[in-house]
Design goal:
mainly alpha; Growth Hormone, Chain: A; globular; transmembrane helix; transmembrane; MFS_dom; MFS; MFS_trans_sf
């Protein structure tokens, strides 16, 4: 739907909503849990989901290229269309379903580029989910705030990600156009933009953690979280753009990278509370920042220097 040089703005909006939802949810949930009965949480989620599904059904149009090409060919064809039996239709559906499910796994196992991106994206997403799951406890336990007031601190995450959306998309497109004017376009042109986010993530983590440990003013903690959210989102946005630039089946490549990231995102909140209980928010976030510096910070340099070579490697020939 969008050319590579114009992909920044579209990706900014498309990737914002999945990240923004978990940040906005606690703001609504804090008020609902304090002023309404707990079961209203499920009613509100169901009502919003139903409304979004209906709006999407009415307004969204098919954009999948193979489907559009089949429809276009059918309109131009002078031959009567082949009518499949119900059994043949079911067999065709099963074949396409099997291909769609197997392709992400095949990409993850066979392509080192996907494996590295999955590792980086997983660590990025894991730290984000850990922060989301423990952020309210800082304000309720350490700052003695009510659930509603504590939930309002999630606005810092919203501000960081919204700012990244508005500023990041045009910047990514600008960098890509400038580099493409000097040499043929390639996915590695996303690396300079990725470097901005990579460096901001540990800065935000350290400011957020040590400000909370020192019990400084709430604004200092929220500024640290906003910086972290800004860098976290820039990095994720650049990774998604890289995947779409490189792989023909962009959705499958994205799914392959997210297979590992969602496993890590599930595991981090499990050990996170115990880590913070033992180390505190200052040293706990220092540990996370150190992990990120060792694993995540080299990502732009690795892609810029060795990205083209890595893209040519297949662990299994013939894929």
């Amino acid at each position: 739907m969008f050319r590579a040089k114009d992909r920044g703005k579209s990706l900014a909006l498309a990737s914002l909503l999945p990240y923004l939802g978990p940040a906005v949810g606690p703001i609504v949930g804090g008020s609902v849990s304090q002023y309404l009965q707990w079961h209203w949480l499920f009613w509100i989620i169901s009502i919003v989901d139903a409304a979004v599904a209906i709006i999407g059904l009415l307004l969204l149009r098919e954009s999948y290229t193979p489907v559009l090409l089949r429809r276009k060919a059918a309109l131009k064809s002078t031959v009567s269309p082949v009518i499949l039996s119900p059994r043949a239709k079911f067999t065709d559906f099963c074949t396409r379903l099997r291909t769609g499910v197997a392709r992400p796994v095949t990409l993850l196992l066979n392509r080192p580029t996907i494996q590295l991106l999955a590792l980086w994206f997983g660590l990025n997403f894991g730290i984000y989910t850990l922060m989301l799951s423990t952020y309210a406890n800082i304000w309720i336990v350490k700052y003695q705030q009510t659930p509603t007031r504590a939930a309002l601190n999630y606005v810092a995450i919203v501000v960081g990600m919204t700012t990244a959306t508005q500023a990041g998309g045009p910047v990514m497109d600008y960098i890509y156009r400038r580099l493409s004017a000097r040499s043929p376009p390639r996915p590695e042109f996303r690396a300079p933009y990725m470097a901005i986010g990579v460096l901001l993530v540990p800065v935000g983590l350290l400011l957020f953690g040590w400000a909370a440990r020192a019990h400084t003013h709430w604004a200092v903690v929220d500024v640290g979280v906003a910086i972290f959210a800004f860098g976290n989102f820039l990095f994720a946005q650049a990774q998604l753009a890289y995947l779409l630039d490189e792989f023909e089946h962009g959705a499958s490549a994205n799914a392959a990278a997210r297979l590992l990231s969602h496993v890590i995102g599930f595991l981090f909140p499990i050990f996170g509370p115990a880590m913070y209980a033992r180390l505190g928010f200052g040293w706990g976030n220092t540990l996370l920042a150190g992990m990120w510096i060792l694993i995540g910070v080299p990502a732009p340099a690795v892609l810029w220097i060795w990205g083209e070579r890595l893209r040519g490697i297949r662990w299994r020939k013939g894929e």
